[in-house]
Amino acid sequence: MTFIKPYLIRLSHCDPTGFVFLPNYYYIFNALVEDWFYEALEVPFDAFLMERHLSLPTVRLETTFSKPTRMGETVDFWLTATHIGRTSLRLTMGLDKNGDQRVRMNRVSVCVDQQSDKAVAIPDDLREKINDFMRG
């Protein structure tokens, strides 16, 4: 299954030429992960971080930029979960405009206990929701 979020590219995302400043893609993709938690998984991301004291830092990131995106465009950011391990989660994400591929990203995150800074197993309730999402 794929989580898709239409998104308006704003002035704050862009460099002086009106194109998305490359580091801002990472900000938007991170927000997409949060939206995925809230909307598709129905897991409050703030509670995951602040109450459960867990995080999902990125440990590997590969990005391909195929075409620039301009201020004022509404584009589709999307996310698919491609693998869930004991402590890690692999996501493939992208940005498309009318079927035109603009950005592709492969991201590996690891579940980390914020107090010990050590990798821990992805909680069973979250694992179940991610597996359900992956099955569609």
Describe it.
This protein is an alpha+beta fold and 136 residues long. Helix content is 28%, strand content 38%. It contains three helices and eight strands. It has a five-stranded antiparallel beta sheet. A three-stranded antiparallel beta sheet has the order 2-7-8. It is globular and about 45 Å long. The model has no long low-confidence stretch (mean pLDDT 97).
In short:
With 136 residues, the protein is an alpha+beta fold. It has helices spanning 22-41, 45-50, 124-135; strands at 3-8, 54-55, 58-65, 74-84, 88-97, 100-110, 112-113, 118-119.
Topology:
Elements: E1 3-8, H1 22-41, H2 45-50, E2 54-55, E3 58-65, E4 74-84, E5 88-97, E6 100-110, E7 112-113, E8 118-119, H3 124-135
Antiparallel strand pairs: 1-4, 2-7, 3-6, 4-5, 5-6, 7-8
**Number of DSSP helical runs:** 3
- Ends distance: 5 Å
Main sheet makeup: 5 strands, antiparallel
Overall mean pLDDT score? Answer: 97
**What share of the residues lie within helices?**
25-40%
Strand segment tally:
8
- Rough outline: globular
Beta percentage is 35-45%
Spatial extent as radius of gyration? 15 Å
Q: Which structural class best describes the helix and strand composition? A: alpha+beta
Lateral strand order in the biggest sheet: 1-4-5-6-3
Poorly predicted sequence stretches spanning 5 or more consecutive residues: none
Please provide the ordered H/E string of secondary-structure elements: EHHEEEEEEEH
